[in-house]
Amino acid sequence: MSAIGIDITGKQFPARAGAPAREIFRDFRLDVAAGEFLVLLGASGLGKTTLLNIIAGLDTDYRGAIRFEGAPPRIAYAFQSPRLLPWRTVLENVALVLPSGAEGREAARAMLADVGLAELADAYPERLSLGQQRRAALARAFVLRPDVLLMDEPFVSLDEASAHRLRDLLRRLIIRHPATVLFVTHDSREAAALASRIVRLEGTPVHIARDIRVDLGAAERGSPARLQAFLVAAGLAEPEALSDEV
Ligand SMILES: Nc1ncnc2c1ncn2[C@@H]1O[C@H](COP(=O)(O)OP(=O)(O)OP(=O)(O)O)[C@@H](O)[C@H]1O
Ligand SMILES: [Mg+2]
Questions:
Q1: Whose C-alpha in 75, 93, 180, 185 is 20 to 30 A from the C-alpha of 39?
Q2: What pLDDT, on a 0 to 100 scale, did the predictor assign at position 244?
Q3: Any transmembrane segments, and where (predicted)?
Q4: How many domains does the chain contain in total?
């Protein structure tokens, strides 16, 4: 696990094909403590994916610095789409991020069992449902034993029951393999169900509009009504005039 100091003094995308230049970040600072589960909430197009890309080192075209405490961390990145290679089996997709050899394949197989995909290890991704593909993507992220885990809307487009099961799975994986997590979502209830801290982003360039510690127990996190109550109290949701939850 590793603390992260984010200090982006400037980040722009140049004008292209009719769209004007955009300044995404200016003097943006965010310190993430080791072991924190930080959820970034914010509207579409604000720069959330850009921020994860910068932290991951995939986008180096910015001014500023990302500092990791201690030794250089192992970073895993679960993208918004699962991005499995269609010509490789599920097992090969997970083992791909490890040094090749029997040891890596065994670690990948064990991780697939942990996410409930043991039986599909030798299948190709096209046979998997979206929920199963997202499980495989989780396995590929955790098999690295990351110090830092970046997750960009990893459960989007799933029905609520599947998303709920994947959130439970993620919680169990994090307990077993602690990491500093940055998790992007549009869903404030998902944020409250998972986060130790929620940061709401707004504006262009982006600023931090809310920074909220989340200290909920397991029972509260499992109850949609109590999550909603927390969100309303924290100013992250409007009270619902009509609700079928009690
Ligand atoms: N390579 C690029 N070139 C030009 N503009 C870009 C590029 N990548 C992103 N942008 C623009 O930068 C802004 C931020 O994009 P980004 O993908 O980081 O937003 P986001 O917060 O992740 O949105 P969403 O919630 O829809 O995923 C958007 O306006 C987007 O159009
Ligand atoms: Mg995005």
A1: 93
A2: 53
A3: none
A4: 1
Q: How far is the CA of 134 from the centre of ligand 2 (A)?
A: 16
Q: Which ligand is nearest to the CA of 185?
A: 1
100 domain-assigned: no
In a domain, 99, yes or no: no
**What is the DSSP secondary structure assignment for residue 19, as one 8-state letter?**
B
pLDDT at 241: 58
Pocket test for ligand 1, best of 23, 26, 48 (most atoms within 8 A of CB): 48
Residue 97 counted as domain residue: no
Most ligand 1 atoms within 8 A of CB, residue of 8, 11, 13, 202 to mutate: 13
Q: What is the CATH number of the domain that holds 228?
A: 3.40.50.300
Residue whose CA lies nearest to ligand 1 atom number 16: 47
How many H-runs (helices) and E-runs (strands) does the chain carry? 8, 9
CA gap 193, 227 in Å, rounded: 7
What distance in angstroms lies between residue 50's CA and the mean position of ligand 1's atoms? Answer: 6
Mean pLDDT per 10-residue interval, the chain, length 246 residues: 93 88 95 97 94 97 95 93 93 93 94 96 96 96 96 92 94 95 95 96 96 94 91 88 52
CA torsion sign for 50, 54, 57, 62 is: positive
Nearest to 47 by CA among 76, 6, 5: 6
Question: Is residue 140 in a domain?
Answer: no
